[in-house]
Design a protein that fits this description.
- The protein is α+β, with helices and mostly antiparallel strands.
- It has a domain of 29 residues.
- 59% of the residues lie in helices and 16% in strands.
- It has a two-stranded antiparallel sheet.
- Strand 1 and strand 2 form a beta hairpin.
- The longest helix is centred in the middle third of the chain and has 41 residues.
- This is ZBBX protein.
- InterPro entries: ZBBX (IPR037688).
């Protein structure tokens, strides 16, 4: 017997193992490789999304002449523009 032919089932009592057929072991190893590849791809997409969101947030911050109102960008009122300029001067 080979130690690689056994696995410990999650939630089982400590030390309890189940003997697997060689085909099942290969299938599990293949699934593990596929899941790792999918995980790396999702992490890459997540980093790209975070980067895009950060860039868009910075662009919105720089374009302080506009503010969001009801989900739409519109020109700032004179009072808001004066307040914004005084805040920048400080």
């Amino acid at each position: 017997m080979n130690i690689n032919d056994f696995i410990i089932l999650p939630g089982s009592k400590t030390g309890t193992s189940v003997r697997l057929k060689a085909k099942t072991v290969r299938e599990l190893q293949l699934e593990k490789v596929q899941l790792e590849a999918e995980n790396k791809e999702m992490e890459k997409k997540l980093r790209q999304l975070q980067s895009n969101m950060s860039r868009e947030k910075e662009e919105r911050r720089k374009s302080s002449a506009y503010r969001w109102k009801s989900g739409r960008a519109g020109p700032m009122t004179i009072q808001a523009r004066v307040f914004s300029q005084s805040k920048e001067n400080k």
